[in-house]
């Protein structure tokens, strides 16, 4: 979400790299949760959750295109950082809310025995 405030491409790349690094660290926490809650069905649970994540990625590509098309009407030049603000804000907000949801509602207790 902070990406549009940077004025240089180097700062933007560093910000993106740090954000993706933290996302990778978080994966270690939730990826093993499938084995905790459903040891016998961990593969199926992982497949279902991975499908949901993949669908979000597919929809995100189309949404990005539509947001940039809409931004062309406001800013004729897509090199303007304001054109990209919503493209980066939406995934940032989704990441924050999904992380909060996981922290508040996740459990390590077995659901499927």
TrEMBL record:
InterPro entries, alphabetized: MFS_Na/Anion_cotransporter, MFS_trans_sf
Subcellular compartments: Membrane
UniProt keyword terms in alphabetical order: Membrane, Transmembrane, Transmembrane helix
Predominant location: membrane
Transmembrane segments: 44-65, 86-105
Gene3D superfamilies per UniProt: MFS general substrate transporter like domains
Membrane disposition: Multi-pass membrane protein
Source organism superkingdom: Eukaryota
Species in which this protein is naturally found: Prunus armeniaca
Taxonomy of the source species: Eukaryota, Viridiplantae, Streptophyta, Embryophyta, Tracheophyta
GO cellular component terms attached to this protein's record: membrane
Protein name per the record: Major facilitator superfamily (MFS) profile domain-containing protein
